[in-house]
Design a protein that fits this description.
Blueprint lengths: L2 H7 L3 H13 L5 E2 H8 L3 H13 L3 E4 L4 E4 L1 H12 L3 H16 L2 E8 L2 E8 L15 E3 L4 H7 L4 H11 L12 H14 L2 E4 L6 E9 L5 E10 H4 L6 H17 L5
Antiparallel strand pairs: 1-3, 2-3, 4-5, 4-9, 5-6, 7-8, 8-9
Helix pairs in contact: 3-4, 6-11
Length: 261
């Protein structure tokens, strides 16, 4: 028995018909019962029962004025649940490896939790330096790291302000921003330019450039970065090639997460 015949053998007819109906309406075009019946070649009484059942669970909405049906909010909720289940590390890893190989520098993937960066991945480059304290599963302050600032810039700025006004801003190096107003202005600039730079603000001798990762809803869910010795990466603002690489990688990962401009 081939796979197709085996799969057909276990098909539940009403489920199969229901899925055909949902796939038909997935093109976004509302249809009447009669049109649905004709397009999926299922008699109208069966289509009516399927529509009634789906409507009771909000998978289908009916326009009482036109008699047309379209997908309901439950379909959106299911789609959102699927997109949220996408493993961001799995989606990001090919791009991280590409950037690591192109630059020979260390690359990171991190998320924001309680105004701190949590590292999901760290790939050491050929030029890896021992003075970087980052590690997978570890945490770093968000306000003075490239990853953190790339994500903070897209959060609710009033909440960011309130958090740091209440908790203070520790000075890690002489370049660390420790004033809340200065941080908010800096985050505005990051949001405008689309990338963040950590110029020895967290660790002396370490320079970093980072970009945000967006999901299907346009929310920033992570960030990626290139990190290395300041003497090698400090001119990154003038290195359009490096900046292009990290931004292209960020855009590709965001696309995999369902984001579209």
């Amino acid at each position: 028995m081939d796979v197709q015949n085996k799969n057909t053998r276990y098909n539940i007819r009403v489920v199969d018909r229901t899925l055909k109906l949902l796939k038909l309406l997935a093109d976004g075009k509302p249809r009447t019962l009669t049109k649905i019946s004709r397009e999926i070649s299922i008699n109208s009484s069966t289509v009516f029962r399927i529509l009634a059942t789906l409507s009771s669970h909000n998978f289908i909405q009916k326009n009482d004025n036109t008699g047309e049906y379209k997908l309901g909010l439950s379909c959106l909720e299911m789609a959102g649940a699927f997109l949220r289940s996408i493993d961001i590390r799995q989606q990001a890893l090919p791009e991280l490896e590409k950037i690591r190989d192109l630059t020979s520098e260390t690359v990171h993937l991190g998320i924001l939790d309680q105004m701190e960066v949590v590292y999901l991945e760290k790939l050491q480059g050929l030029h890896a330096i021992g003075l970087m304290s980052s590690r997978v599963g570890g945490r770093s302050p968000a306000q003075c790291t490239g990853l953190g600032k790339a994500m903070l810039a897209y959060q609710d700025q009033e909440k960011v302000r309130a958090y740091f006004e209440e908790n203070g801003m520790k000075e890690y190096t002489k370049k660390t921003i420790t004033d809340v107003d200065a941080l908010i202005d800096h985050l505005d600039q990051i949001r405008d330019q689309g990338y963040a730079i950590d110029d020895e603000e967290h660790e002396n001798g370490v320079h970093c450039v980072a970009v945000p990762i967006f999901n299907f809803s346009g929310s920033v869910v992570a960030a990626i970065s290139i990190s290395g010795p300041s003497e090698r990466l400090a001119p990154i603002g003038q290195s359009q090639t490096l900046l292009d690489w990290i931004q292209e990688a960020g855009a590709e990962i965001s696309k995999k997460m369902g984001y579209s401009v």
